[in-house]
Design a protein that fits this description.
heterodimer; A: alpha+beta; Ubiquitin-like (UB roll); Fumarate Reductase Iron-sulfur Protein, Chain B, domain 2; five-stranded mixed sheet; two-stranded antiparallel sheet; B: 637 residues; alpha+beta; Flavocytochrome C3, Chain A, domain 1; Methane Monooxygenase Hydroxylase, Chain G, domain 1; 17 helices; 37% helix; 15% strand; binds flavin-adenine dinucleotide; binds FE2/S2 (inorganic) cluster
Amino acid sequence: MNLTLKVWRQKGPQGTGPKDKGRMVTYDAPGISPDMSFLEMLDIVNAKLELAGEEPIAFDHDCREGICGTCSLMINGIAHGPDAGTTACQLHMRRFSDGDTIYIEPWRARAFPVLKDLIIDRSAFDRIMQAGGFISVNTGGTPDANCLPVSKEKAELSMDAAACIGCGACVASCKNASAMLFVSAKVAQFAYLPQGQPERYDRVQKMIATMDHEGFGNCTNQGECEAVCPKEIKMTNIALMNRDFLVAVATAGARQVS
Amino acid sequence: MKLESKCPTGPIETRWDRYRFETKLINPANKRKYTILVVGTGLAGASAAASLAELGYCVKAFCYQDSPRRAHSISAQGGINSAKNYRNDGDSVYRLFHDTVKGGDYRARESNVYRLAQVSLNVIDQCVAQGVPFARDYGGLLDTRSFGGAQLQRTFYARGQTGQQLLLGAYAALVRQIGLGTVEMFPRTEMLDVVVVDGRARGIVTRDMVTGAIESHHGDAVCLATGGYANVFFLSTNAKGCNTTAIWRAYKKGAAFANPCFTQIHPTCIPVTGDHQSKLTLMSESLRNDGRIWVPKNKGDKRSAGQIPENERDYFLERRYPAFGNLVPRDVASRAAKERCDAGHGVGPTGLGVFLDFTESIGRLGKHVIEERYGNLFQMYEKITGENPYESPMRIFPAAHYTMGGLWVDYNLMSTIPGLYVLGEANFSDHGANRLGASALMQGLADGYFVIPYTIGDYFGNTKLDKLDTSHPEFTKVKQEVNDRTKRLLALRGKRTVDSLHRELGLLCWEKCGMGRNEKQLKEALAAIPGIRAEFWKNAMVPGSGNDLNQALERAGRVADFLEFAELMVADALERRESCGGHFREESQTEEGEAKRDDENYSHAAVWEYQGEGKAPLLHKEQFTFEYAKPSQRSYK
Ligand SMILES: Cc1cc2nc3c(=O)[nH]c(=O)nc-3n(C[C@H](O)[C@H](O)[C@H](O)COP(=O)(O)OP(=O)(O)OC[C@H]3O[C@@H](n4cnc5c(N)ncnc54)[C@H](O)[C@@H]3O)c2cc1C
Ligand code: FES
């Protein structure tokens, strides 16, 4: 099939002159096979650009299996494109029809500045994790793994939340550029486990403070994040996080004493 | 070059304990004075960086992704082995040790493997303490399953996302240290060379992949945990960015490379659909527990699976290996599929595929059971192929997956360059000629959490290291080399994309040095590789500039290294005139077409030392002795 692409191009940080504001550029993508993945379609367009001595469209990707969370494309205005529960790298061209025009843009959020073309800087996510996205345990000296029984139900809920791949689609699709789904997934994973209890309320406060500091917005219950999440992380995690945050604030004094 | 394994002696059960007792300790207050550079933050690197920082060392860590959470380890699906014996099914440290040596076809070092089996116990404890949500049974205790044909249930798992959960656990430990200021993290940073001063690894040269800046970092030791080289085949199950650059550059600086020809081909991957294919997707081998593998008995039979009657089907694994059937090890299953396809029985548009059929198990267990067990895999298959595997059988074909070869290391995980350590898939160590399913995750975490923290201290305790920084002339020199090379790449303005050259190399390696290897084809490959390399340096096209985010340049650098590395891999395959594990030399097989090992002549690691540009590398041998796991021919009949 033959397609037309409208792709966001923006110069990298070393681009000369004033900071590039970026623009949409039109490309033809002829002879695309329905068996190709979306990224393979971009590979073909890029090969043509390269041979013409032009810079290929820069886009982030690595595993191409929907698990590393690197790919990050806004496809026709939807984070990761039209297939529910699917990353851009797992989207296949049979989803499109001959003659289609496809718009491809980067994630857009204040906290995710564009580095070049479709590549953004998501390091804010790592900084939120540094603030509290862990259980403070050093290597060695841990008890036998079966010393800590966890009910199957809780373990499953924890795993549901832990499935987050940190791609940032939730932020990109939220009109407030909120990172609440991402942060709450980590908070919930640990909140369901006994290992997570000692730092539970400290963790939620620290992660939320960093999230605010990094410039992510608040949640206004639109649900766009859940709708586009390739791992179908649930908004109920946000409810859990809000509840933990309230408890944390309300009991802050008491926790300091104890 | 002298290869000293430095293995402790005495009863194997006590070797690691004794080693730890005999190592030099570093006073906690002094650890701060040592800087360790950890390149790669997958399972091996992240666990090492975090553990070393916890001990008090200053750590700088590097990865090419935008975050350490995205390393290729994340895509591991099946699980992680440990000798916990929670099942009471007869497992033990000794048995895991024995299975690993045997599974590796007796081409690994006993002392290392025994230690791996020992610390496998601690690995699971560590992960659980970090909050890794492993699967549990109704009593709330950890669940395990059998994996990759093991007759025990020793594999711990987190749904089909074990690698992801383990990596996120190690990542959490790492970011905690980054937050505490004990680890300085450099994401989107590619290591392009090692700096060796007075015979010791003292630093690295990197490229900032956003700004293009070439920078030097100095340290007291360097750990490479940069993963495997399966992307030499272009098409593999590895992530697109996986590369051999870090270990290849280290090789050229004096770190010997062991067993480069030991590569693992995974039997259950989705077949290639066309020239556009950029990577291959693994379907978990757990599918072989309930799926039956077959091809049509008649050559070139193009009917759909449903139209081929039962008596015209050849369930070739069940036929050849009645005892293990569809559950034979990876290398055996892969070769059998290739044999059928080569003989003209392959299915699908390209003829390079075999059926993996669930009709029988759906009939026996009901669709809902199959859905519960493999629902996500079936969905993934449908997404990629557009076919519904509940209705018609899957089509699968083997693909390059894992590399057992890597930089040679001693018992301390130190390469032949003092101060340069190699961890995880990047080293050659524990899996011999074939890795068992669910053992790579175990090894990566064992190396990082529980081995390197001890062995590196011993090095510092026994070595007087001069103070130096990046103003040392050797740093200036290596930085200049890296700059020159980058300029050379950017000057390429030919008529071929880097990808097309990588594809050409990959196909050549796959056809001549893939599942079956013989002298004639290996020699053809050796003759052809320099031609592709010359074509690259003459006719490749690398647009863009060096002072910028430039993905074309990144790819070109990696492919240039694969083009050199491939030659060593093929030379090693030619040199090893026996079949063992994943290395099948067609000249060395039994009458029934099974792999035939030659212990008399090849019970060694082939260890290659670089001799300079244009010169043949020098082969050394580390002889293996087996005091505990006595070699026998593997048989799955
Ligand atoms: C699809 C798939 C499924 C698998 N399933 C299983 C399984 O179920 N069980 C099992 O045990 N094993 C499995 N494996 C194997 C296992 O995942 C890997 O062997 C293991 O995760 C490798 O870990 P590592 O830490 O050595 O390397 P990696 O995870 O590959 O990490 C490499 C690191 O090095 C960095 N790096 C690389 N080159 C450079 C450079 N030049 N400069 C700077 N940084 C660099 C990368 O950024 C990354 O951080 C699977 C593999 C695949 C492909
Ligand atoms: S490239 Fe890894 S999730 Fe898309």
